Amino acid sequence: MLRYILRRLLLMIPTLFGISIIAFIIIQLPPGDYLTTVIAQLSAAGDLVEEDVIAGLKARYGLDRPMHVQYLKWMGNIMLRGDFGTSFEWDVPVGDLIWSRLGLTVALSLATLLFTWAVAFPVGIYAAVRQYSWGDYFFTGIGFVGLAIPNFLLALVLMYVAFKYFNQSVGGLFSPDFVEAPWTWARVQDMLGHLWVPMVILGTAGTAGLIRIMRANLLDELRKPYVKTARAKGLSELRLLLKYPVRVALNPFVSTIGLTLPILISGSAIVSVVLSLPTSGPLLLRALIAQDMYLAGSFILLLGVITVLGTLLSDLLLAWLDPRIRFDD
Amino acid sequence: MPAERPSPSADDLLLEVRDLHVHFPLDEGTVRAVAGVDFDVYRNRTLCVVGESGCGKSVSAQSILQLVDRPGRIVQGQIRFHQHDADGGVTVTDLASLRSSSRAMRSIRGRHIGMVFQEPNTSLSPIHTVGNQISEVIQLHLGADEDTARRQGIEMLERVGIARPAQNYDAYTFELSGGMRQRVMIAMALVCSPALLIADEPTTALDVTTQAQIMSLLQELQADFGMGVMLITHDLGVVAEMADDVVVMYLGQVAEYGDVDRIFHAPTHPYTKALLRSIPNLDFDQDIRLDSIRGMVPDPFHRPAGCPFGPRCDEVIEGRCEAENPPAFSLAEGGSVRCLHYEEVTLS
Amino acid sequence: MIARVPAPDHQEAINVATQWQLMWWRFRKHRLAMTSLVIVILIYLVALLAEFLAPFTPDEFRADYTYAPPQRLHLFLETENGLRFQPWVYGYKVEIEEEALRRVFVPDEEVIHEIGFFVSGVPVRLFGFLETDRHLVGPKEPEAPMFLFGADKLGRDLLTRMIYGTRISMSIGLVGVALSLILGILLGGISGFLGGQVDNIIQRVIEFIRSVPTIPLWMGLAAALPTDWPPLRIYFGITVILSFIGWTELARVVRGRFLALRTEDFVIAAHLDGVGQMRIILHHMVPSFLSHIIAALTLAIPNMILAETSLSFLGLGLRPPIVSWGVLLQEAQNIRTVATAPWLFATGGAVFIAILALNFVGDGLRDAADPYAR
Ligand SMILES: Nc1ncnc2c1ncn2[C@@H]1O[C@H](COP(=O)(O)OP(=O)(O)OP(=O)(O)O)[C@@H](O)[C@H]1O
Ligand SMILES: [Mg+2]
Predict the structure, then answer these.
(1) Is residue B329 classed as helix, strand or coil in its secondary structure?
(2) What contacts A195, CB < 8 A, 6 or more positions away?
(3) I need a labelling partner for B107 at 20 to 30 A (CA). Which of A128, A300, B96, B240 fits?
(4) Integer Cα distance of B55 and C10 in angstroms
């Protein structure tokens, strides 16, 4: 087990490196360099561009040095000082902007993950055990619908329905009173009250996919000889179902976290834009459009890192559940 | 050859299968996997079932415990199981009439009839320990608590020849070799001392040496427990080694049934003869398998109208074998055969 | 256990000849997949014949009909000599809504506009060269308003724009999948055929790409496309970005097939015969897994379409004057617009149907290609 964890941690390093490279490239992509943009911004605002400000920026980001030095400086600032650069659109350190938004992104993704599981697991079992029953067809049907509606469209439709028929706005994560309030228990409760809307929207497609995965896995397992062995022992159907095939099918199910997590975080970006949630999506979009590249790049970097960490956790969970992985070396 | 045993007495009857039919209704048509099978199993005796792949051996065996895969269904026939209690009383249950998931059926599975399957690798759960899978049966049927179950489980593992039983009790099955796994399967099937053991090709997936070990283990255990054994095999060498009685199956029917000596020395059915001929010489120490009989097994959807073996038979009676599916004729020497050549024999 | 092996070359010929037939038979049994196949073909026909099928051109606008709601289509017209088949719609009249003080369109029951087939309208060029002014349907009087799906904020016909959008959205799926396929076959093939260290590296790269949240990445890349690029270049830029991430699944399928096939007897036999590696790949391996690839391709198209739609919806993908489903949906981005003009959702319906149909066809193909895999 320990060796497995170590190996898994080592494998993370190149992935994290790759993500940082991609984020860096995205920062570098827009035409013109950061400095010209800043100067243009400052002079447009009527400020005097002072020589020493420019010199300070150059030194901080290594702007007049070659690419790889710039990359190292950027990473170095992040790793050593937690300095993600400055958002020139907001004129504050990127770090001040992103953490609360990332926190909410993680909260939303986790809530959605739990929701997805709570629904997909029992429904998947049902659909497999009662294969080709009306219930199976019903859930398969819903699954396909969930798969074919883009998240943002679902969000729009839901907003429209809520607005039109219930005269309610479903956007946001907080009631007006709590938007600016500090974190209190009441604020958490308020957030939970709002969270379910994006959770359901975001979770629909994933739930549909997971139901199909669970159903297919369980159908596979139900055909395996060990189920017949268990039956030949005299176990009751329900007991043997839960003890053997469901338990075995749980493993590939857990391993899907690694796949669903990027999709959830990815999808939350766009759903949040539609529902104007205070998560990373809308700010990222705005940063990209305004070419506020240090902000955008940091988001992309951190969203990637979060995904990698999530996948790591799910792999460890899987190793804990499945002796075959644990003993595999 | 096994030591001579007295011929079976009716008192020792364990299982009577009569006119068993099992069908698989599929989209493409109905597969008549078992089409009228009769045989008996006695205490202390071994019945071997042989026949080509696909002739319905496994389906017959699994229908005894109602374990046939869906959509397979017993459509006709009786499976009478004789339960002998300590003071000599006998209760007879028709297993074919029980519902597959009924309590009565479940109380027989694993308790009175144990079953060992062909593939020890996939027939055990990959993510549960050996002990977990064995003790479950003990706790279920004997109402033992966990500690007792553990003790009995380890004892049973030792009995089936597993080295370091206490350690291996807590091992996962992927840590064991194929032969060890099959021993675990046997331990699981026998841990409640059932009256009947059904073993469906228990050694096909194993190497020759291990095969021999498992077979002698079965003989040993039979001597100890006095159970009846129904052993399905492809291997005529195994039949010669193990069997008291033999059922030769062809296309869902019993082509020939009889005492092992009679089958080997005076085979009657052309199919049995062909099977025996296909062995180069009767040196049973070799790993001998059935092959190279002229022609192919017919498509299960299109059974021949007459004798199922007719198209491949060397001794066809023109005009009759294509038209009539012969019933089972009793032979004077004991046993029965489904072949028109023996019509007169029986009549006389 | 019975000998039944005909001469090997003979058998291979039979297999190749009947494999496609078998697959088609199995596919035909899936009623849902068959229906969906018909729908997919129809959708691509719409894409191909957009100029002719659409009543108007996508940029034709009627400033006095902004946000005109959909008209109800009537099929039979009452005349002096009885009911006759003649589709028609009511005209519009404008009323001022009391509370909100805004203009709303209501049907004008006094005015009837007849709709004709093969009517002449704005001249268009079919397939890029066939000049015609005929449109499949359209108002008989060219000036009459006809908005079967309603109008957008500039008074453009939504139906027309959806039909034109079909072309861009469906073709981006095809082009993107074609690009992914090239990457996927190349890398998946190399990975599966060579195995070993190369395989290992490519697998790590694939794992890496799959573990990155795609939408933020797409957003980042798409935002970097210069805004002053001409539409066509933007289109290709977006397609390249989408396929840059979409190839991994195809590569996985290709690799899996290669690995499965590498050990098959006929490939080993060809090796032993000293046939060149390229020949082995082309003559023996590619045909035997083409069917799987086709299924995987079909399943990849809807993802491309979804991705394009999402990006364009955010304003980072295709931009007007290109008309794609995503661009159309972008106009429905805020709740106020949707509340006044809910018919803008119609495009979402088109996306839904297309994606569903493609998924069913893909599932059917996959089952037909390999009934034993799930
Ligand atoms: N799940 C099933 N669905 C459909 N048909 C089946 C199924 N299981 C068995 N059959 C049919 O029943 C027939 C008998 O199968 P069975 O498994 O009993 O053969 P067998 O004699 O045990 O062969 P083998 O020696 O290969 O184990 C086969 O011809 C097969 O077509
Ligand atoms: Mg069998």
Answers:
(1) strand
(2) A107, A108, A111, A173
(3) A128
(4) 29
